[in-house]
Design a protein that fits this description.
Radius of gyration: 18 Å
Shape: extended
Structural class: mainly alpha
Number of domains: 1
Number of strands: 0
Strand content: under 5%
Helix content: 55-70%
Oligomer: single chain
Mean pLDDT: 84
Order of helices and strands: HHH
Length: about 80
């Protein structure tokens, strides 16, 4: 997939599966890099931006910022 045109040509479920595959591929590469550097990270309890619980937390934080007036629309 190279852009929004490619996304428009496929079903949303196919798009989600391809995105999930990309995330997991880079996850494995990242684990290999960390292992080579002899670092210790708990990959069994990690979080990824594709996890619904993480997305819900982000939306909750955004809502709080919006309610406090810290989010506004602007033009460069």
């Amino acid at each position: 997939m190279k852009g929004s045109e490619d996304v428009a040509e496929i079903r949303i479920s196919t798009y989600h599966n391809r995105c999930r595959h990309i995330v997991m591929r880079y996850t494995q590469e990242w684990e290999n890099v960390i292992d080579r550097k002899r670092r210790s990270i708990d990959f069994q309890h990690d979080y990824k931006t594709m996890y619904p619980s993480l997305m819900e937390s982000i939306w909750c934080i955004f809502e709080q910022l919006y309610d406090k007036g810290f989010v506004y629309r602007s033009v460069k």
